[in-house]
Write a structure and sequence with these properties.
Layout lengths: L16 H35 L29 E6 L11 E2 L8 H4 L23 H8 L5 E6 L9 E10 L3 H11 L12 H14 L8 H13 L6 E7 L4 E6 L2 E10 L1 H10 L4 H8 L1 E2 L4 E11 L21 E9 L10 E2 L2
Parallel strand pairs: 1-3
Antiparallel strand pairs: 1-5, 2-4, 3-4, 5-6, 6-7, 7-9, 8-9, 9-10, 10-11
Helix pairs in contact: 4-5, 4-6, 7-8
Length: about 350
């Protein structure tokens, strides 16, 4: 695959009316999907630890820094997954890099090959569609299958926009060096290829790719696959969102047209509740009911760290080539917010940082 950006998504004001309708539908469905994935990745995982009498390790402030290196142990108690949700339909020429074929499309025959998966016995094609009431139950059953789930606009429906889970066991097979080259060329650190300024700079640019997506370059395979997919999907002329739930980081990463963010659990004690409630001009009971999940001796809540790219990880305004300065950070923490419980629809996120 050559390095030219053939697509790049468009802002809403540059869309046709029908594309605006599709964008609105996509964002609405993405919000719904995100709420479900937040609960599965974080809240459900926490209660898995509690049921098995295993201490849950909450994130420290240091771990929110993009370049922090922490190598933890994988746990089967944490719900891990990789989900790709596209506004449009991925073109066939990308199949060599995001590997979706008839052999891993979502149908009854292919699902029969999955061990410990019984839903196929009552499977019907409509359950794949986002508008089916059992869609999220179906998704949850498939989340622990290796590699990624792919949700995209149904390519077989021409007259209306309909989203469905088209493929499972989707492998991301784009080399890290190619992804780093693609990003470095976009940011004008290179003109032609990754190694044009030597092997050392090429290695640094590959490390910087991980930093651009909020990870240390030593992270495991699922997070690597997620950020590689996010970089690849930027080539298309529609928006996409990648969700990566990682046991090692005890968090869920989100890569979208808005940038990078990370969802994680925070621990809140009784003595903190009154202070937070007063700060947000609400009663303590309302804060508990709308934001907190009960635990043994404390509460938990879902927080999100929102990141922003620095001037060194944005294309230069003059478009000229520039020298790489490895010491300068490419991503910084902008703010932290606390989300309402996933079954509360009238409350807004509040400031947490």
């Amino acid at each position: 695959m050559d390095g030219r950006n053939k697509g790049m998504w468009r802002f809403r004001e540059k869309l046709s009316y029908y594309e605006k309708v599709r964008r609105s539908l996509y964002e609405l469905l993405r919000d719904s999907l995100e709420r479900h994935l937040m609960k599965i990745a974080l809240v459900d995982s926490f209660y898995n630890y509690q049921r098995n009498n295993v201490p849950y390790e909450f994130l420290t402030k240091t771990e929110l820094k993009p370049r922090t290196r922490k190598m933890g142990k994988e746990s089967e108690l944490f719900n891990t997954f990789l989900v790709i949700f596209c506004e449009g339909t991925i073109p066939p020429e990308m199949k060599n890099y995001i590997r979706f074929f008839p052999e891993n499309s979502v149908n009854k025959k292919n699902l029969e090959y999955l061990a410990n998966f019984t839903l196929h016995k009552k499977f019907h094609l409509n359950i794949r569609y986002f508008d089916n009431p059992h869609f999220f139950d179906f998704i949850e059953k498939l989340l622990n299958v290796d590699y990624a789930l792919l949700i995209q606009q149904d390519p077989t429906v021409k007259k209306k926009t309909r989203y469905c889970l088209t493929h499972f066991h989707v492998k991301i097979d784009w080399p890290i060096a190619d992804a780093a080259e693609d990003l470095a060329r976009y940011l004008r650190y290179i003109q032609h290829n990754l190694y044009e300024n030597g092997d050392k700079e090429a290695r640094i640019l590959q490390n910087k790719l991980f930093e651009y997506y909020g990870c240390h370059y030593s992270v495991g395979g699922r997070r690597t696959a997620g950020l590689i997919a996010a970089q690849l999907l930027r080539r298309l002329d529609f928006i996409s969102t990648v969700y990566v739930s990682s046991s090692e980081s005890r968090s869920m990463y989100k890569y979208s047209e808005r940038g990078v963010s990370k969802f994680y659990l925070v621990q809140i004690f009784e003595e903190q509740i009154e202070e937070i409630a007063q700060r947000e001009n609400m009663g303590a009971e309302r804060f508990k009911n709308q934001y907190l999940y009960p635990a043994e001796g404390f509460y938990i809540a879902i927080a999100e760290a929102l990141y922003e790219h620095t001037v060194y990880s944005k294309p230069p305004k003059d478009g000229k080539l520039r020298r790489l300065k490895p010491a300068y950070t490419w991503l910084r923490l902008r703010e932290e917010i606390l989300h309402p419980r996933t079954n509360i629809f009238e409350a807004r996120p509040i400031n947490w940082s």
